[in-house]
Amino acid sequence: MKILHMEVPVMQIYFILFIVIVIINTSGGDTQASYWDENLSQPYFDNTTKRDMTVTIGQTAILHCKVRNLGDRAVSWIRKRDLHIMTIGILTYTNDQRYQALHTEGSDEWSLRVTSAQPRDSGVFECQVSTEPKISQAYRLNVVVSKAKILGNPELYIKSGNDINLTCTTSHVTNPPSFIYWYKGGRVVNYSQRGGINVSTDRTTKTSNLIISRAAPSDSGNYTCAPSNSDADFVMVHVINNIDPAAMKHGNNSGTSLSISYRYNNYYQHSTFIVWKYCLVILVLINKSFSIR
């Protein structure tokens, strides 16, 4: 019995293998590849940016939002308290011209700028990406009021001849003040008109110290501390020649001598009152004894 052997040409074998590969790539294999490509290209937030910002009134605040693999999606800024759309892409959708979208072509950063920030701007803002479903990231803006504070009582009594020593500090400031001016009665304290005045300002600690040596009654007045980036504070200074017990209860800033002197005089006056009181009682008793006789 003869067995017939059929020889298949080599070119036909290569052709059949090629057809099989094409069929595989156009079916399940292609679906799997597209699945991975789609997931690897999804947008995501770069969390290296600061998400909690504090500025003082009048400063410019910029909230930075970085989105990687954005593709053809859009980035929007939403004000959380009323869900108001502030920006979409580089377009601004609010009548408040202090708000503006910032973006450099080709970069991953989409920022929201608020110029001349006010307390009403405080709150949460969301950077939102138009994926399905949407993804968002929250940013908090705090706008605070910076105030100067002169340490001590708001009204000071200084004994003539002692030094006036005033220290001013600033609070709720993000940057040191460029300067801190001292005023007396609305005018900048003038060094040339009077000697013995020294002002030292430390921008690192945001404090300033005013010393007026050997104070005289003419140095009395309203002293104001006015930093460049804070609300001013003031103190009323009274330079007196004689001790006024009624004024002392308001406090003093002239050292211990005035306070000790006041306590001594107060004790002396109190003791004298007691002596006279007992003398009066004795006189009344003597008078009664003579009346009985």
Question: Could you name the key traits of this structure?
Answer:
4 helices; 24% helix; elongated; 36% strand; single chain; 293 residues; five-stranded mixed beta sheet; disordered N terminus; six-stranded mixed beta sheet; alpha+beta
Explain the overall architecture.
The protein is α+β, with helices and mostly antiparallel strands and 293 residues long. Helices cover 24% and strands 36% of the residues. It has helices at 10-25, 28-40, 245-248, 256-292, and strands at 44-45, 52-56, 61-68, 75-79, 84-88, 91-92, 99-103, 109-114, 123-129, 135-144, 147-150, 155-159, 164-171, 180-184, 187-188, 197-202, 207-212, 221-227, 233-240. It has a 6-stranded mixed beta sheet, with no helix packed on it. Strands 12-19-18-14-15 form a 5-stranded mixed beta sheet, with no helix packed on it. Mean pLDDT is 79; it is low at 1-6, 29-38 and 251-273.
Largest sheet: spatial strand order:
2-10-9-4-5-6
Q: How many distinct helices?
A: 4
Q: In terms of quaternary structure, what is this? A: single chain
Helix and strand composition category:
alpha+beta
Gross morphology: elongated
Helix percentage range: 10-25%
Q: Which regions are unreliable across 5 or more consecutive residues at pLDDT < 50?
A: 1-6, 29-38, 251-273
The main sheet comes to: 6 strands, mixed
Order of helices and strands: HHEEEEEEEEEEEEEEEEEEEHH
Say how many strands there are. Answer: 19
Beta-strand fraction estimate: 35-45%
Radius of gyration, taken over Cα atoms and rounded to an integer in Å: 41 Å
- Straight-line distance between termini: 179 Å
What does the average pLDDT come to? 79
